[in-house]
Design brief:
Two copies of one chain form a homodimer. By secondary structure, chain A is an alpha/beta fold. Helix content of chain A is about 40%, strand content about 15%.
DNA sequence: GACTCTTGGAGAAACGTATCTTCAGACCGG
DNA sequence: CCGGTCTGAAGATACGTTTCTCCAAGAGTC
């Protein structure tokens, strides 16, 4: 009894309307499974005629290769993890922030464009979920110093790219905004608009974004000779922002301009200003960091700083996939991550040296809230039949 | 030469700092791989002493079981797909709608809570991505009639649960809102608030939500004897909504109340009303379907209908996992999906009969825009030092 | 003392693919 | 006519688990 006969025998006895496997295709086409595999994957040396015949048979049988078997054999799952480690314990509060939602969306899209799928996994999630999924690589958002998850992933050979310059954990590459530059830009912008005392609404957490931004503000104050005026609050608490905004405007040394580091701060500050009878921008200049376009429709519209989450998400994923595909293959000539490379792309260097980092520019969207003179109209309003 | 020696020999010769496998653990602990597997998975008949010893060795070696091998062997990947098939071709425009974002978030969270991870896959994405991923089941949002993807998934034995009552494709189960009831509720609400002619802002697409809602409106008009006043636009076009809102209020038979089916309609209608000098709610009552809380802060706050995407997402995933775990195991007594079951849960019945459906209630959040008398205050405003 | 249970654990067969190696024959130049 | 190259394809192995089957030895039991 040959091995083939044995196999097909086993196969037929245990037949219980299972999906067709590569063996069934081979049997039906009268070829070996090697030939089927080669024909379907465009490998091997086969005449086009055999290829198309096998393809046809496979189609007819409704053959779908087993992703699990392929993953086991090739060591590649086509799956990328996306995780966020900071910002409280709840699994998904984080996508409430428009930044994360946008970033995740762009990341998903970029991954799919390169043949990878993205799965969102909070760091706090059950360990069995993490270990039950074959990941080719992971994107980590804002890893804190000494993040154990990142360290373990890196140790086990999984490429890790972080959104946010990593504090002290080993990553394959990272992408971040130049937060110092962005804050200084805003402060200058507010100064030019006539601000004399600029306040800051910031967070209590120790992630890189909050820390760098606050430090940039304090440094600017020192340099310019202004006494810092700021209030902090736990950024993941949605109610605390309004209270902090109120506190900031209730101070005896009330600022005449405020920059809020977090998305809801614009609304919070606007409401607080109203309560105190402050007109925006006449009495108070306002800027906040946000990806939401509701600030184009508020009264008045509020100037926002965009961290360009779409660009970040796309770049992060492309860097990660570059690393994944670079692990065993050299430069494959595919589409690569773009951006201002700080270092040459040396992936997975076992030696010393910092991981390659990329800085993405931010964008200040200037609206009425930060200009004493109303901004030039760039878009004409729709026809106004009611007159006006 | 025994098989074990052969294996370990092969192992050691090809050793190139690979991850430790179950064989390495077995060798180090001086037991068989069967024992290791049983010890780590809590199966078999082993004394606690052996179990803990094996666990310890595994820990020491940093052993992580291969998810791919486990998936191949058990036939379960722990992965659930989430896909949307309607709403244009672009892969991810859909998460721009707060409904989908919320729903996806809740779904992800619910899946993780039960040990599954969720991967977002647009139906339009490259076929190789779909076939490269082992999915235990799929959630489909708003499947159109005769959706080929759903049909193929169902045929290949993958459980499919849909958000939105499926038109004509076979699903394991579905969850939806009672859209007719919701629309009728709103129309009654507006009538009670004094509306004489209620308009509708609706979409041009043929998905269930748009169709059912529009039909409910038309039926209501017929019953009440009001001439329908509505405008349609392609819902996935962000700019078209404002134009349609404008059109609706520019009509000679201008409505004195409007219900907008889509999230941005509230803002659009408010802006249009302003342009026409219409006061809300005095001259125009406004309701729109939205999950965004920006409508609590608009001037005036706008009454919204929530479709409870979090509840839907949670329920859909729970139903799906019930089906997945019910395929081979009977009632496992785990946490099950809740909700108003329309049919007893008969999963994967090959026979006739409709798939089990669940209707989730909607919630009307009444705000100033739909009441001629200002609503009772339910929350007192924060202290107002500025007076007022 | 021969017998059944029970306990603790080993062996080996899958799971379904990709790929490395081998091999038969065709073709070809000399 | 013969060694070499090239083409088309088959065989067998490995990927790393889980699990089914089976066995040895000790503990009761009559």
């Amino acid at each position: 009894m040959t091995a083939a006969a044995n196999q097909s025998g086993r196969r037929s006895t245990s037949r219980r309307l299972e999906r067709a496997g590569i063996r069934d295709v081979a049997a039906a086409a009268g070829v070996s499974i090697t030939t089927v595999s080669d024909a379907l994957n465009g490998k091997g040396r086969l005449p086009e005629e055999t290829r198309s015949r096998v393809r046809e048979v496979a189609e007819r049988l409704g053959y779908r290769p087993s992703a699990a078997a392929r993953t086991l054999r090739t060591g590649r799952s086509g799956l990328i993890g996306l995780t966020v480690t900071t910002y409280g314990e709840e699994p998904f509060t984080f996508t409430e922030f428009a930044y994360f939602a946008e970033m995740a969306r762009a990341a998903t899209s970029a991954a799919l464009g390169r043949g990878f799928a993205l799965v969102v996994l909070p760091a706090s999630s059950r360990h069995d979920v993490w270990s039950n999924i074959a990941l080719d690589g992971t994107v980590v958002i804002d890893p804190p110093d000494q993040d154990p998850l990142v360290t373990e992933l890196y140790r086990s050979g999984v490429p890790v790219v972080s959104d946010g310059k990593p504090g002290n954990c080993p990553v394959t590459a990272w992408v971040d905004n130049d937060h110092e530059a962005a804050v200084l830009d805003i402060l200058d912008h507010l100064s030019e608009a006539g601000a004399r005392r600029i306040g800051l609404l910031t967070g209590t957490s120790t992630d890189t974004y909050t820390r760098l931004s606050t430090e940039a503000y304090l440094g600017w104050c020192r340099r310019v000779g202004q006494e810092p005026v700021y209030e902090t609050y736990p950024a993941h608490d949605p109610a605390a922002g309004a209270v902090a905004a109120d506190r900031l405007l209730a101070r005896p040394d009330r600022p005449d301009a405020v920059y809020g580091l977090f998305d809801p701060n614009g609304t919070d500050l606007l409401a607080a200003a109203r309560r105190y009878g402050l007109r925006v921008p006449e009495d108070l200049l306002l800027v906040c960091c946000s990806e939401s376009d509701v600030y184009a429709g508020t009264e008045p519209p509020i100037t926002t700083l965009s961290l360009k989450p779409r660009k970040i998400g796309t770049t992060v994923v492309n860097l990660l996939i570059d690393a994944i595909e670079g692990v065993d293959a050299g430069s494959s000539g595919g589409q690569r991550a773009e951006g201002a490379r700080l270092f040459p792309p040396r992936f997975r260097t076992a030696g010393t040296g910092p991981p390659p980092g990329t800085l993405m520019p931010t964008e200040l969207i200037v609206r009425a809230s930060s200009q004493r003179r109303s901004p030039r109209r760039t878009v004409s309003p729709p026809r106004s039949p009611g007159g006006g």
